Fold this protein.
Amino acid sequence: MAQQMERKIKVSFLGGAINSAVGNAHYSALLMDNIYELVSGCFSLNDENNARTAERYGISSNRLYSNLDELITHEKGIIDAIIILTPTDQHAIQVIKCLNNGIPVICEKALCTDPSEVNEIKSALEANKGFLSVIYNYLGYPMVKEMRRLIMKNVLGKVNFIQIEMPQEGFIRIDKKGTPIIPQQWRLKDYSIPTISLDLGVHLHMFIKYLTSETPISVVAKSSSYGNFSSIIDNVNCIIDYTNNMSCNMWFSKIAIGNRNGLKIRIFGDKGSVEWLQESPETMHLSDSKGKRCIIDRGNEEIEISDQQRYSRFKVGHPAGFLEAFANYYQDIAKSLRKYNASNELQFDECYGIDEANEGLKLLAAVQKSSQSRSWELI
């Protein structure tokens, strides 16, 4: 007898309109594996954009709402989760409102703008025994999962040092007329933690957490503003000490001309090293202490995770990419959400919740504090 297919997870979007930076990417990734069904939403506070998005996503007009309160009133008890895709400074109040109404939450990173907001969210999460998962889509790349396996299997030995970077060029680019290219307005405002850290730094923190499980202890950092928008930080350099005597050089930037999205990580252990670049996601470079160097892809015989059907939608030689990684992370969230629905307990494996988000915000707050004090700061 054929195995019965699990019921689709019914979700609503808050934010994610077709004119947003992330809406279409989330929509495409969400539906890729036939696990989720987008059934309703409030996509924009602009009525025209809201209606256009609902039409594009196939949402009926009677399940399109003009604000979060309306959505909760009509969808509570019907949907399995709400996916929050609004600007970061709106997340805390929206997440708490959903949790207080018993609605599981999947939230775009960063979870919020300040560690103090995490405490409020955590109180609501615990009081309601709710579900909250934060999206870190880059962790969905199959080769990133393979890198984690290498570290867990001690192939690299003890990890001593990590060099990780995420350089982009958006805040120093100009158009053909020489006019600065203007990003979304919410990106042009800094908080106690600069927006560049909430945008890029959280990804790098979660990479290290996912791959090594180590915890940051102290940091020294320098933050700068070099680009077209002098009121915001656009370049951050850090040296971070972690548990288990591991150290890290971290750089993220919006003024690195020539870099579209140069996410790169190099991990050095006492037995070997591995390197991965997001713009070449299908391969990683593995070296050992005897001088051997090789390129690993999904076709190598020693691969154990990245060739699983769950994470690979077509045969090796046909590259997977950003949207596939996004979809993989949504698969991982679905697994945890279904466990929660069955047991009412939060159990995360390949995805993450509030504790890791809190750790990341504390790290990034210390980065900013160090940039101002010009000294090492405890996390």
